[in-house]
């Protein structure tokens, strides 16, 4: 993943990062290592990530290891202290996204993020069933403690977004996001683009572009 920081550097994270991350300086065109501490997403690829446009945090969600074991943990990296924190579901009864990889994540305000889609392992395992794609929408709110994550109600007169992974979610305004393309394990490439208009904190309406 690659995320621009408020310093102008680009934070690079790969599945090989353990006690450090990579920082790219676009002015000097050089990459350097930055030491980190805490619980990092080691060995995970296909993680959704987004930097906070208003402060020093970068948020990571989900991912898969080399054995197709997926997670639904949230990892937060503070780029001032360079410390990782991992957060998981608070009890089986709480609402939380299923383990998945290749979701898309974007920041919409200070400590506020929107998560869409991705794919998890199908019932029976990866070899038997492949992947199960999602088209759900979630809000993530960072706090001084455990992040708050809630599902959003999505409605549309134009049809719901196709379940997909590896798509792109772009912040446009405080109320508007654009969801672009992706891939569905059954149907293949998804070529459509949708406008997601946020209403309140728990509802979004989908429009065709």
Structure characterization notes:
This protein is mainly beta and 209 residues long. 2% of the residues lie in helices and 47% in strands. It contains 1 helix and 20 strands. A 5-stranded mixed sheet has the order 5-9-8-7-6, with no helix packed on it. The chain has a 5-stranded mixed sheet with strand order 14-20-19-16-15, with no helix packed on it. The longest helix has 4 residues.
Give the topology.
Layout: E1 2-4, E2 10-12, E3 20-25, E4 30-35, E5 37-38, E6 48-51, E7 57-61, E8 74-78, E9 83-87, E10 104-109, E11 112-121, H1 126-129, E12 131-141, E13 148-151, E14 153-155, E15 168-171, E16 176-180, E17 183-184, E18 188-189, E19 193-199, E20 203-208
Parallel strand pairs: 5-9, 14-20
Antiparallel strand pairs: 1-2, 2-3, 3-4, 6-7, 7-8, 8-9, 10-11, 11-12, 12-13, 15-16, 16-19, 17-18, 19-20
What would you call the quaternary organization? single chain
What is the straight-line distance between the termini? 27 Å
Computed CA radius of gyration, to the nearest angstrom: 17 Å
Counted by DSSP, the helix tally is: 1
Average pLDDT metric: 94
- Tell me about the largest β-sheet: 5 strands, mixed
Give the neighbour order of strands across the main sheet.
5-9-8-7-6
E-strand count: 20
User: Percent of residues in helical segments?
Assistant: under 10%
Q: Write the H/E string, N to C.
A: EEEEEEEEEEEHEEEEEEEEE
- Overall shape: it is globular
State which percent range the strand residues make up.
over 45%
Structural class: mainly beta
**Low-confidence runs:** none
